[in-house]
Amino acid sequence: MCRRCGKWHLVGAARKLGVTHATISRRIADLERGFGGAPLFEKSRLGYILTSSGRAALLHAKAMSAAAEGFAREVTDADAMSGLYA
Length: 86
What we know:
This protein is of the alpha+beta class. Helix content is about 65%, strand content about 15%. The protein has helices at about 10-15, 20-35, 50-85; strands at about 5, 5-10, 40-45, 45-50. It has a two-stranded antiparallel ribbon. Helix 1 (about 10-15) packs across helix 2. The longest helix has about 35 residues, at about 50-85. The protein is elongated, with a radius of gyration of 18 Å. It starts with a strand and ends with a helix.
């Protein structure tokens, strides 16, 4: 999602992802339901602010993304190395 001044904006996120702001709103609601209803954002007139649950989810999401990228690099490197010994 797009971030500005510490706030999250649905319209900017929607534009970046090529979907409507309603789709982003539904996806956030789905995530919150998936986390047992814990709110991930607080709505303000200037945008959305991460709650403590949202900050925790973001930290774990970043760690998961980094792990997936690392795995992809390892697989790619292993495939390249296996070609050397074939």
